[in-house]
Write a structure and sequence with these properties.
Strand content: 35-45%
Order of helices and strands: HHEEEEEEEE
Largest sheet: 4 strands, mixed
Helix content: 25-40%
Number of strands: 8
Mean pLDDT: 81
Shape: rod-shaped
CATH architecture of the largest domain: Sandwich
CATH topology of the largest domain: Immunoglobulin-like
Strand order of the largest sheet: 5-2-1-8
Number of domains: 2
Low-confidence stretches: none
């Protein structure tokens, strides 16, 4: 029996085992970071799903002539990710937009899941007719009639 040959087989086997352990450790780190990113990524909801089952729904919309404000009552049912809420008000042949959340409108807070909130929006349009509601660039309600309070 050749002891020299046996030691080279053992050495090669150890190198292969070490390489496999190294590759396994790298794979575990990369795999765990990918899984962690997926777990904390925002829920992806298609625009069609948002239109059928909106994350935020309009409970009521009326124009208060005394305060000259639109009183918009919204309710949020879902806890899915929502970055920005935009309301476009139409009246007198013109339109005006308001937004909450995101980089454009950080001062206005978006409803929390399960919350119902009234937003008071000042308008210069005079006669308000309808509004549309957009959630994260997806129009979920169009031509919602605004009544007088």
């Amino acid at each position: 029996m050749n002891n020299k040959g046996l030691s080279s087989v053992v050495v090669v086997s150890l190198f292969v085992l070490g390489a496999l352990l190294f590759v396994g450790a790298i794979w575990a780190v990369v795999y765990n970071s990918i899984i962690e990113d997926v777990q904390y990524a925002p829920d992806e909801i298609s625009c069609l799903d948002q239109q059928l089952y909106p994350l935020v729904d309009i409970k009521s919309a009326c124009f208060n002539e005394e305060s000259q404000e639109l009183e918009l009552r919204l309710i949020r049912d879902s806890d899915s990710y929502l970055d920005q809420l935009k309301v476009v008000v139409k009246g007198s042949g013109e339109s005006e937009s308001f937004c909450c959340g995101g980089f454009d409108c950080p001062s206005c807070g978006i409803l929390n899941p399960g919350e119902e909130r009234t937003y008071y929006l000042g308008s210069d349009l005079g006669s308000l007719e309808s509004l549309s509601l957009t959630l994260d660039s997806c129009v979920v309600k169009e031509d919602f009639t605004i009544r007088n309070c």
